Amino acid sequence: MSAEPKFTEKRYTLVLCFVTSLFLLWGVAITMGDVLNKHFQNVLHISKAASGYVQFSIFGAYAVMGIPAGLFMKYFGYKRGVQLGLLLYAIGAFLFIPAANAGSFGQFRLALFVLACGLATLEAVAHPFMAALGPQETSDQRINFAQAFNGLGGVIGPLIGGYFILRAEHAHTADLVSVKYLYITIGLVITVIAIAFSFVKVPELHNPHTVATDTYAVGAEPIADKKLFSHKHFIFAIVAQFFNVAAQGGTWAFFINYGREIMGLTDERASYYFSLSIAMMMVGRFAGTFLMRYIAPSKLLSAFAIGNVVMCVIVAQGAGVVSFVALLMVNFFFSIMFPTIFSLGLKNLGRHTEQGASFIVMGVVGGAVFPPLMGIVADKHVATAYFLPIICYLVIFVFGYYVTRAKIGALKPK
């Protein structure tokens, strides 16, 4: 009998810890954008539809940077890719200084775009990087484990934003000074981390997805030398990721609005509940990592998608506490979707894995498209806007069903 595949190897431990920290860093940045969404409504006096362009700037960067990040990683390696991502992250944070001084929504969007180019680079690098830190059989577990810390970063982001930006008694609640100093601090922290990573020695890595004799995907199409876009599951993964992040972007962008308009909360308290909802996502990712030992990732993905269809129907009713609890639970079911779609999309791509990762990252542009659309509906009634993500979760359900039928990366329950 063959031994159970290891989660990782001892020689990869330090690198794995550092790469996991990258997931936390972009979690902070993404959810801080949702706090800024509400703050810009308050200070710059823009509509919900207009504030949705905060997410457009962030997620639009993924469409622009996805392929260049993949090519950079291919020619210069994982470590240089991480350093480039951290550099762009820091530059974008420092661009908040002139944007705040000018009080310009356009300049803020430019700063967010540059920062998000860094996030897109980190994301394109970190997923295949994490996959390479062990056997392919456990890549789903490693990526979901790392994404749990992305959830932790997502918890920290609204807490920081709520306290330093939205707190009612804060001296600069009605201006942009606190935003400027907060992002100066973030830029300095990211710069220090980038310098520290330059001293980390990365062991020689062999991409596990290039092993053609892998028994993990029994019944799947052979790797051989197929062209990248000949892999149907990969194409479907891009589509699923588009709709997945579309749902995420819209749900998160108007969470604070929902808390204020449906529950009567202050912006600050609503941001803390938003942090709690992200904590639910982190719990879901740890739970998902465990459940994938017994349930095929694709089947679990489909089950969680149906869970969110039900949650969104309840949220859209605007029925007080019941609907608000359902809104919190959306992130629990959302938890495994991004990393699982990503990991399943990379299965059996062989030498095309890094390039495939960059295309799946480009699917994140869905988060740029959906928030402005939801914002149009939310300007009339914020609860009704939550009917729209149901479309996205149905697409994800079909993707999970397709991968299950194709037997791609389907772990057998013990």
From TrEMBL:
<feature type="transmembrane region" description="Helical">
    <location>
        <begin position="325"/>
        <end position="346"/>
    </location>
</feature>
<keyword id="KW-1003">Cell membrane</keyword>
<dbReference type="GO" id="GO:0015535">
    <property type="term" value="F:fucose:proton symporter activity"/>
</dbReference>
<dbReference type="InterPro" id="IPR011701">
    <property type="entry name" value="MFS"/>
</dbReference>
<protein>
    <submittedName>
        <fullName>L-fucose:H+ symporter permease</fullName>
    </submittedName>
</protein>
<dbReference type="InterPro" id="IPR036259">
    <property type="entry name" value="MFS_trans_sf"/>
</dbReference>
<feature type="transmembrane region" description="Helical">
    <location>
        <begin position="12"/>
        <end position="33"/>
    </location>
</feature>
<feature type="transmembrane region" description="Helical">
    <location>
        <begin position="270"/>
        <end position="288"/>
    </location>
</feature>
<feature type="transmembrane region" description="Helical">
    <location>
        <begin position="300"/>
        <end position="319"/>
    </location>
</feature>
<dbReference type="InterPro" id="IPR050375">
    <property type="entry name" value="MFS_TsgA-like"/>
</dbReference>
<feature type="transmembrane region" description="Helical">
    <location>
        <begin position="110"/>
        <end position="133"/>
    </location>
</feature>
<keyword id="KW-0472">Membrane</keyword>
<keyword id="KW-1133">Transmembrane helix</keyword>
<feature type="domain" description="Major facilitator superfamily (MFS) profile">
    <location>
        <begin position="13"/>
        <end position="407"/>
    </location>
</feature>
<feature type="transmembrane region" description="Helical">
    <location>
        <begin position="234"/>
        <end position="258"/>
    </location>
</feature>
<feature type="transmembrane region" description="Helical">
    <location>
        <begin position="384"/>
        <end position="404"/>
    </location>
</feature>
<feature type="transmembrane region" description="Helical">
    <location>
        <begin position="84"/>
        <end position="104"/>
    </location>
</feature>
<keyword id="KW-0812">Transmembrane</keyword>
<dbReference type="GO" id="GO:0005886">
    <property type="term" value="C:plasma membrane"/>
</dbReference>
<feature type="transmembrane region" description="Helical">
    <location>
        <begin position="145"/>
        <end position="166"/>
    </location>
</feature>
<feature type="transmembrane region" description="Helical">
    <location>
        <begin position="53"/>
        <end position="72"/>
    </location>
</feature>
<dbReference type="Pfam" id="PF07690">
    <property type="entry name" value="MFS_1"/>
</dbReference>
<feature type="transmembrane region" description="Helical">
    <location>
        <begin position="181"/>
        <end position="200"/>
    </location>
</feature>
<dbReference type="InterPro" id="IPR005275">
    <property type="entry name" value="Lfuc_symporter_FucP"/>
</dbReference>
<dbReference type="InterPro" id="IPR020846">
    <property type="entry name" value="MFS_dom"/>
</dbReference>
<feature type="transmembrane region" description="Helical">
    <location>
        <begin position="358"/>
        <end position="378"/>
    </location>
</feature>
